[in-house]
Amino acid sequence: MPEQLAETVAGGVGKGWPAVSAVVGAFGAFIAGSNTFSNMTFSLFQFEVAQKIGFAAEQAPLLVVALQAVGGAAGNMICIHNVVTASATVGLHGREGAVIRKTLIPTLYYLVAVGAIGCVVLLL
Questions:
Q1: Backbone angles phi, psi at 73, to 5 degrees
Q2: 102 class by beta-carbon count within 10 Å (0-12 exposed, 13-18 middle, 19+ buried)
Q3: 15 Cβ partners below 8 Å, 6+ apart?
Q4: Is it the case that residue 87 has pLDDT exceeding 90?
Q5: Whether the predicted pLDDT of 99 surpasses 90
Q6: Which of 5, 19, 87, 96 could make a disulfide contact with 115, Cβ separation 3.0–4.6 Å?
Q7: Cα–Cα distance between 31 and 41 in angstroms, integer?
Q8: What is the pLDDT of residue 76?
Q9: pTM for this one?
Q10: pLDDT at 24 over 90
Q11: Do residues 87 and 96 touch, judged by C-beta distance below 8 A?
């Protein structure tokens, strides 16, 4: 299944994939609650997409998987499990939504920066 999804995505997104790769990692961490689980779920998919796109660099699939891992780290900032735990620890019980809203801005900045760096590294 990851191979078929990778083929479809590679055909649709093409060389712009490095800009999206970290977002997939962040989404996985946000939903699963763990960067490790996000990497376990999406690394093969990311690797296959990079291979099917056919980047010139030999290390391109590994760099795309690295973008996945970096995106997963960004997703941990807004992961519900982590926000609830941190909020309870510092006495902000019941204010988790406000914490996520405030943390969403640096998360988006982080993902845009990582996507731009990934594009520069892989497309030049």
A1: -65, -40
A2: exposed
A3: 53, 55, 123
A4: yes
A5: yes
A6: 19
A7: 11
A8: 93
A9: 0.88
A10: yes
A11: yes
Residue 56: predicted pLDDT: 65
Residue 74 · residue 26 · CB < 8 Å: yes
Give residue 120's pLDDT. Answer: 92
Check if the beta carbon of residue 69 is closer than 8 Å to that of residue 35: yes
Per-residue pLDDT at 88: 92
* Residue ranges covered by each domain of the chain: 2-123
**Rounded distance between C-alpha atoms, residue 89 and residue 57, angstroms:** 45
Q: Who's near 12: CB < 8 A, 6+ residues apart?
A: none
Token look-up 């800009």 returns 19
The torsion angle over the Cα atoms of residues 93, 94, 97 and 100, rounded to 10 degrees, is: 0
Closest to 39 (Cα-Cα) out of 53, 24, 49? 24
Cβ neighbours for 48, distance < 8 A, ≥ 6 positions apart: 2, 3, 6, 7, 10
User: What is the C-alpha to C-alpha distance for residues 71 and 28, in angstroms, rounded to an integer?
Assistant: 9
